[in-house]
């Protein structure tokens, strides 16, 4: 089937427009209030919905509501988060007041994609987190709001680089290729950027964890789905403003322990006459400021919310951080007697980043502690003007003045992102709605790096062939989305209902980039912004590099349907199917079918166990897919060959594969939900099989004309368990204390791969570029750190390695690492056995305390700083020595072994917030004021000697002698490596003010 739906898109829009005509029915207005049954306080933002339709409203700040309903409307449903919902027959009433009782959140409505469901009716593994449960403090990455809050969701930003992206995993590895992170859907817009959502604008996040929940998103759902709902306006008296301000101070929480200048000299280090704390020279107290202002309100059938967010964030590394402005508009209205609903949202973000140089931290660890910062302070004549006034240890491999790196060079970027979307719905009948959504997103990135002629680091000031370097990278990504779908809802008897949704989705993605590199400048008189214009002054045209890339129109087309049925208010059925095609796949295999089925039963409805509110058992199975990252993997690749005789020809270097298809994941999930009074628990057990990875393989030249082509191959299995516990320890009028614990564990096995076994994760230079630290084998668990076992130090200062197999000889060289007779073994695993989060929320009077603890057990990290700089190698007397409690003083040669693999279990007080709420008299211009103090990373209990014990779930490879790291190609099969370019962890204190007026 050809992927061309332009005519279908126009036709769908025409049909939608025709259906949005004005049909009027007899209407009446119902008013009333919604209050708390115990306290009588108004419930602000309570939901009122006409049963069997999408017509509804919410209460204002007095708990009041007004709702226009048709004459044939029979029931209203009232619901509020944390309270049991209630249905009321309308009859002839025009005023309905309702009191809701605090319940066990059984009636909470949860967004599940293309609609919503009551929480108790969900048959899949779905977790919803509201704003009041988010992590607090100056959160720069919205995903960090959920860190430790959702069982099975891993969010790690090791070290806390303000410009770094968190690594997000849901139930472990879902693919060995691209798209390893969950699909993000913001306000119904599939693939919207989470970077274009300010944390202060998020109302709720729902995580679809298992296959039966994510299957409705087809070929992009294998890594899970994160649904983000932003804050919206409410109907209230006039315009209401809210201001949120934060000021934070961050300091380096931990560093790599190294020798002091005196210790270094005593150990035989080269004495250059100074005493310099290089880490102190390149770090600082990072000051961050956040200001957010929003205006919301509504009139009649229209509600709106407009917000502006400003963030100025300094990292603990000097010259790292960003300045960002974000604006968002959300507008909702109803028209034509409330039969037409329109929701519009738009967001704009502009971020100016100073990426800094993480390498300054690396060289701050290893640089000679007796070296001066400035060349003028050298103990011998030094031509410091040649290096910008800084001292450099010339002639040494992988040695650069860390202060010079920061002060002389520039690494900056700008990202501008615009997203907008609109949803239009029309109630054809009270039970049938047709809806359409259009959306667009465009992201522009412009990064610039400049290394002057005086910079030894990448500028190569001592090079006879190049002085200075400038690099420019521009990128534009965009997508357009159109969706149309019908939703039918109906009551089937007094305690049963049916909801059916079916529709069509079209999305087109585009990408283009340009890269330019210039080098060998006459001097530094020209700013790097003018270097392109003056490129004719370059002395060597060989230092000009340029390339560009443009993607074809990448299209994804889908047809989908889902049915939800509740029987006897206790049996819940869910079934969905999505048929989807992508231009990224082979011409003969572009379409896939992704089905899902789920069943849930409230067993207690029939057992009627005393004091038990809910005992639900559910089981779901779903099939999802994963697409490749690049385009054209199914296409042949040829290169131009210039013959010695002047002829020009082409040569096939990669064969085509028209059968290339999507990766496929089948997942079975069994869940049990239990609620009894103040206690609730949820247990999920899952089994997933992921197959047909899209990998480049070696093939038969005689068959394909070359030895390379992309094929579907491999099988990965994961079994895991997740447990969520919650208990209201105290629930009194003047005091509430609830606690919650989440635990998750999983094991991933590589059942089939393109090779039976291989080593990965090269340690790097100096001296250990032949060392690989991770092994993968068919039939074995992912994440094995592989190497010899250290037993002691020999008389000559070399390591003594264990004779593991007891054959009387030790084979510990890297060249024999996979030899069956070699003395290598598993030294640890980079993936934790258990991850947990523990939340405590306490409120008493106007005070509240939120303490969140987090930890992980059973994972190891390779401490690469120790592996390189801890052995007392005589030839390294110009580099500082790492000096941990695990150091072996007599060890004078470096060889990777179990000595450098450390258990990295940790338990930390991740977040502590103390806040005080101030009340004002009714009629005051100020509606409320809250002042808070938050501490992040307050303490960490761990035996790991590195800077951050959090798991390293991906590896970006080694980088040596000033080389740049390629962060675009993470290796998900090599967890557990703590590289030398990691950002240092920090501790942060934040003073916050929230003002409503």
TrEMBL record:
Signal peptide range: 1-26
Primary location class: membrane
Official protein name in the record: TonB-dependent receptor
InterPro entries: Beta-barrel_TonB, Beta-barrel_TonB_sf, CarboxyPept-like_regulatory, Plug_dom, Plug_dom_sf, TonB-dep_OMP_SusC/RagA, TonB-dep_OMP_SusC/RagA_CS, TonB-dep_rcpt-like
Keyword annotations from UniProtKB, A to Z: Cell outer membrane, Membrane, Receptor, Signal, TonB box, Transmembrane, Transmembrane beta strand, Transport
SUPFAM superfamilies per UniProt: Carboxypeptidase regulatory domain-like (SSF49464), Porins (SSF56935)
Membrane-topology descriptor: Multi-pass membrane protein
Gene3D superfamilies: Carboxypeptidase-like, regulatory domain, TonB-dependent receptor, beta-barrel domain, TonB-dependent receptor, plug domain
Organism phylogeny: Bacteria, Pseudomonadati, Bacteroidota, Saprospiria, Saprospirales
All copies of domain TonB-dependent receptor-like beta-barrel, residue ranges: 409-748
Location(s) in or outside the cell: Cell outer membrane
């Amino acid at each position: 089937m050809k992927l061309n739906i332009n005519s279908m898109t126009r036709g769908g829009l025409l049909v939608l427009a025709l259906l949005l005509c004005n049909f009027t029915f007899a209407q009446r207005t119902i008013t009333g209030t919604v209050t708390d049954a115990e306290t009588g306080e108004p419930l602000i933002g309570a939901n009122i919905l006409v049963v069997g339709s999408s017509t509804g409203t919410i209460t204002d700040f007095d708990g009041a509501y007004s709702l226009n309903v048709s004459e044939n409307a029979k029931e209203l449903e009232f619901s509020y988060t944390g309270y049991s919902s209630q249905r009321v027959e309308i009859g002839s009433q025009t005023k309905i007041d309702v009191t809701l009782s605090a319940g066990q959140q059984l009636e909470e409505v949860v967004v599940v994609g293309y609609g919503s469901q009551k929480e108790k009716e969900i048959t899949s593994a779905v977790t919803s987190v509201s704003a009041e449960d988010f992590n607090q403090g100056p959160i720069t990455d919205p995903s960090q709001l959920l860190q430790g809050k959702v069982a099975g969701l891993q969010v790690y930003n090791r070290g806390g680089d303000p410009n770094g992206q968190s690594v997000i995993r849901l139930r472990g590895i879902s693919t060995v290729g691209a798209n390893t992170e969950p699909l993000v859907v913001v306000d119904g817009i599939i693939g919207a950027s989470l970077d274009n959502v300010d944390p202060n604008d998020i109302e709720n996040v729902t995580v679809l964890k298992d296959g039966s929940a994510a299957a409705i998103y087809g070929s992009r759902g294998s890594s899970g789905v994160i649904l983000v709902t932003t804050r919206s306006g409410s109907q209230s008296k006039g315009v209401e403003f809210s201001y949120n301000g934060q000021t934070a101070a961050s300091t380096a929480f931990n560093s790599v322990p190294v020798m002091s200048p005196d210790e270094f000299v005593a150990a035989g280090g080269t004495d250059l006459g100074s005493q310099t704390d290089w880490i102190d020279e390149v770090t600082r107290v990072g000051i961050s400021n956040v200001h957010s202002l929003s205006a919301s309100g509504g009139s009649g059938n229209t509600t709106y919310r407009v917000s502006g967010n400003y963030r100025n964030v300094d990292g603990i590394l000097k010259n790292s951080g960003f300045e960002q402005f974000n604006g968002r508009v959300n507008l909702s209205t109803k028209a034509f007697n409330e039969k037409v609903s329109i929701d519009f949202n738009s967001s704009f973000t502009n971020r100016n980043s100073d990426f800094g140089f993480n390498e300054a931290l690396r060289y701050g660890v290893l640089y000679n502690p007796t070296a001066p910062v400035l060349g003028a302070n050298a103990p011998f004549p030094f031509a410091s003007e040649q290096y910008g006034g800084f001292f450099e240890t010339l002639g040494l491999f992988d040695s650069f003045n860390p202060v010079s790196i920061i002060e002389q060079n520039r690494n900056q970027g700008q990202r501008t992102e615009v997203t907008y979307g609109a949803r239009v719905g029309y109630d054809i009948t009270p039970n049938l709605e047709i809806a359409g959504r259009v959306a667009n997103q465009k992201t522009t990135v412009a990064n610039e790096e400049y290394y002057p002629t005086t910079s030894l680091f990448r500028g190569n000031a001592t090079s006879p062939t190049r002085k200075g370097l400038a690099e420019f990278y521009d990128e534009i990504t965009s997508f357009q989305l159109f969706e149309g779908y019908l939703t039918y809802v109906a009551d089937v008897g007094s305690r049963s209902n049916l909801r059916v949704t079916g529709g069509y989705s079209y999305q087109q993605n585009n990408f283009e980039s340009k890269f330019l590199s210039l080098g060998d400048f006459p001097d530094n008189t020209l700013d790097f912004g003018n270097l392109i214009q003056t490129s004719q002054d370059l002395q060597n045209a060989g230092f000009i590099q340029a390339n560009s890339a443009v993607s074809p129109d990448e299209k994804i087309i889908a047809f989908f349907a889902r049915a939800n049925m509740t029987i006897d208010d206790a049996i819940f059925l869910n079934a969905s199917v999505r048929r989807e095609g992508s231009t990224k796949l082979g011409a003969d295999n572009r379409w896939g079918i992704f089905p899902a089925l789920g069943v849930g039963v409230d067993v207690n409805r029939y057992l009627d166990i005393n004091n038990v509110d809910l005992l639900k058992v559910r089981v779901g199975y779903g099939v999802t897919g994963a697409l490749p990252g690049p385009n054209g993997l199914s296409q042949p690749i040829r290169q131009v060959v210039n013959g010695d005789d002047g002829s020009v020809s082409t040569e096939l270097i990669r064969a085509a594969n028209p059968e290339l298809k999507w990766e496929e994941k089948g997942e079975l999930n069994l869940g049990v939900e239990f609620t009894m009074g103040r206690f609730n628990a949820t247990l999920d057990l899952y089994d997933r099989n992921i197959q047909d990875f899209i990998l480049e393989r070696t093939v038969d030249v005689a068959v394909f004309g070359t030895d390379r082509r992309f094929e579907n191959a491999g099988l990965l299995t994961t079994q895991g368990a997740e447990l969520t516990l919650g208990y209201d320890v105290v629930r009194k009028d003047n005091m509430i204390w609830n606690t919650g614990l989440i635990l998750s564990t999983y094991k991933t096995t590589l059942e089939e791969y393109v090779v039976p076994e291989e080593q990965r994760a090269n340690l790097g230079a100096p001296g250990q570029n032949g060392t690989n630290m991770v092994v993968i084998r068919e039939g074995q668990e992912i994440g094995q750190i592989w190497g010899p076992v250290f037993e002691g130090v020999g008389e000559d200062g070399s390591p003594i390695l264990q004779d593991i197999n007891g054959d009387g000889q030790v084979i510990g060289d890297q060249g024999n690492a996979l030899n069956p007779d070699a003395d290598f073994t598993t030294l640890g695993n980079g993936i934790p056995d258990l991850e947990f989060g523990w939340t405590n929320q306490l409120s008493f009077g106007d005070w509240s305390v939120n303490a969140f603890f987090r930890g992980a057990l059973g994972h190891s990290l390779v401490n690469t700083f120790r592996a390189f700089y801890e052995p007392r190698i005589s030839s390294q007397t110009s580099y500082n020595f790492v000096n941990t409690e695990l150091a072996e003083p007599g060890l004078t040669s470096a060889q990777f072994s179990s000595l450098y693999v450390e258990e990295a279990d940790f338990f930390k007080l991740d977040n502590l917030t103390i806040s005080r709420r101030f009340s004002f008299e009714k009629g005051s211009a100020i509606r409320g004021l809250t002042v808070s103090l938050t501490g992040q990373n307050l303490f960490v209990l761990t035996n790991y000697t590195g800077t951050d014990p959090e798991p390293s779930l991906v590896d970006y490879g080694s980088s040596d002698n000033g080389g740049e790291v390629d962060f675009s190609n993470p290796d998900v099969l090599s967890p557990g490596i703590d590289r030398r370019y990691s950002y240092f962890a920090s501790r942060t204190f934040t003073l916050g003010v929230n003002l409503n007026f």
